[in-house]
Every structure is written in C-alpha cells, then in structure tokens.
Amino acid sequence: MLYRNFKKDELKVSQLGFGCMRLPVTDNDASKIDRVEASKMLKYAIDNGVNYIDTAWPYHGENSETFVGDFLEEYELRDKVLLATKLPTWMTKTYEDFNRYLEMQLKKLKTDHIDFYLLHSLDKEKWENLNKIDILKFIEEVKSSGKVKYIGFSFHDDLETFKKICDSYSFDFCQIQLNYMDENYQAGLEGLSYAASKNIPVIVMEPIKGGKLAFNLQSQLAEIWDPEDASLTPAELALKYVWDKPEVLLVLSGMTTMEQVIANVDSASRLTAGSLSESEKNLIGRLRAYIKEMTEINCTSCQYCCGCPKQIPIWSIFDMYNNAKIYDALKSSKFSYQFISPDRRADQCIQCGACEEVCPQKIKIMENLAKIHPLLT
User: Is residue 274 left, alpha or beta, with left meaning phi > 0 and alpha meaning psi from -120 to 50?
Assistant: First the structure.
C-alpha cells in the first residue's frame, strides 16, 4: 500500500480509503448489509494497508455506521484505522442538533472520538443554514473536546460556493467529487487547485463515477480502447487519473465485492502521483468524448435517494438507461428491468420530490423516470 502525508500531524494515510456506502447487501435491500461478506472485505483491506474507513449517517438506510462500529469492535481494529463519518447537515435545525447527532454517531460507532468528521454534502443552502445556527462555534467546541480530531466537509455544488466555504474557515480537509468525466463539474480540477492553495488536503470521492468508468470493453468502447495506450483495466485507469494528482490526499472507493477490494488494493500499491503517461492521457480524452456524448443522466449510484416511499431503485433504473445508450444495449437493459417488481418500477413514482431534495447531482429524477419507463417496457 502506498501512503500520502497528511501534513497536520504528519499522518501517513493510505491513498485508498474504504467507503462504506456500497457494501454488499442481502435480499436486494440497500438497508440490509451482508455483514459476513462486508466484514471479510473490510478485514482484507485493513490487513493489506488500508487505514482510512469512511461511513455516514444515511448510508445503507442509516445502518452503515452501526455495522462499522460492530466490525471494528469485533476485530479490535479501532486503533488501527482513521475513522471518518459525517454530520447529517440536512437534519440539523438547531445548535443542539449538532451535539445530539454526534453523540448518537459515537454510540453507533462504539468509539469515543471521530478522526475525520465531515459536514456532509454541503451546498450553498446547507452552508447558509449551518451558519445561522453557529456551526463554527460547534466546530471549535467539538475539536477542543477531543471528540473530533479533524474537521472537514464534503461538497456538492458549484465552484463559487466551494471557494466561499474554503475561505470561511481553516478546515483540516475537504472531500470533492472528481474523475476524468467530472473535471469541470462542481468543484472540479479548479476546486482541487484552490483547496491546495489554501493548504486544505483533498479527499476524492466518486473516482470511478459510481462504477460507471469500470465499464466492460464492448461495442464502441472496445474500438476506442487501444492496448498500446494502456495496459490497465478501465477501473485502474480511472483510479490512476486521480492518484496522478499530488494534491489528492486519498481516493475513496465504495466497494461491493471482494474482487473489487483485491483489485483496488493492488492498484493502490502500484499507481502513484505523476505516473499517468501521455498515451493514457490521450486514451482518457477519447473515452471522455465518447461517454460524454452518450450519457444522458449523470447518476453516480450514490443511493441517497434510497428513501423513496415507493421503494423505486432509481439509481439502478438510471444505470439500465445509460447502459442502453452508451453500450447500445437496449435489449439487455429491457431484460434487467423485468426483474424489478411492477410495484417498484419507474411508472410508480408519485412525484413527491423527496429524491430530488437529496440528490447530490441535482438530477431531474421525476422527469427522467417518466421518460425511461416506456423505453424499458
């Protein structure tokens, strides 16, 4: 495992972090973590050098933090890892809420402190609301108490808002979405450089764009991919693109299978800053142009919308739709759609808007669901 230097305390942080948002589940239910398989995956990652574990209040139907706490206790690994979780900013309405949620998270995680604590999914509105109830006072108090070691934020909004947040407080770190398809999306590459200029270390999420960039080499993508340009897999190329940037502290990957863990740990032991070749850069340029042209819905399968009252698997349906377009695979997407129960398909949307309120990508979910159902049936 390769490590990067977190300059605050000269910490050595593994350049691969384990994101506990896409753990394996049972009964095709995002809230039911397959604890046996997920434990094997986390244990393998930690045994092979991963020392940063990331979770959050809403992940897996609010069960991810509890699983992580139980896992670290069972295997006596709390002191072996840097533990990250996030304040559910959309649920904090008063100053007292800050401490109330933190105390519940400490209990769920079975620990007396959080190493990396993030203000979750900040945008302009959330940041303004947090300031109204004195978030900066809470930050100072909670750091001095020892319950939180480092304070940062994760971000989903435009570049201007990102810069304003960076300017507002001396955050210990921040977390942004970045991959070779999202160079100019949200904070993007300019945000990465700006944070570095403010001495704010950057953690990258969605390096493989919710798995989208770990595509199979078929159809036109197979024609674009030249073995002479890259001896890597598509997933490795996506990770290498982000690790190539020295401003990046670590890359978070939400892994669902043991195969993904093994592959990513191997990649994190070989791929480092400044190693992306010119031929690989050219290949990325060709891939970017094609995927951008073919992708209609910018969904990363983060599953923030899993609280749909009709239990519609929105992210899965969007994936089927995009796959049909990108890989010329309408037939297989129609086949997959048949396995969704009729009472959970896209046409069951009741237009409540709950999904759009929490979507980090600001997708017009209701409009797209109405468009997709006729196509996939």
Answer: left
If phi > 0 it is left, if psi is from -120 to 50 it is alpha, else beta; for residue 349 that is beta
DSSP code for 301: -
pLDDT at 163 over 80: yes
Rounded to the nearest 10 degrees, what angle do helices 124-132 and 135-145 cross at? 70
Task: Report the alpha-carbon distance of residue 198 to residue 195 in Å, rounded.
Answer: 5
Residue 147 and residue 142: Cα distance in Å, rounded? 6
Pick the closest to residue 299 from 366, 236, 361 (CA basis): 361
Q: Report the distance separating Cα 318 and Cα 365, nearest Å.
A: 9
For 275, the token pair is 């190693």
* Maximal C-alpha separation, the chain: 58
Question: Six-digit token pair at 288?
Answer: 């970017």
Residue-wise pLDDT tens digits, 340-366: 888 999 999 999 999 999 999 999 999
Continuous H helices in 244-360: 258-268, 278-294, 314-326, 330-337, 354-358
Summarize pLDDT for 79-108 with one digit per residue, the tens: 999 999 999 999 999 999 999 999 999 999
Neighbours of 283 (CB within 10 A): 21
Q: Which residues pair with 4 in a beta bridge?
A: 13
* pLDDT for res 230: 67
- Torsion sign, CA atoms 344, 346, 347, 351: positive
pTM of the model: 0.86
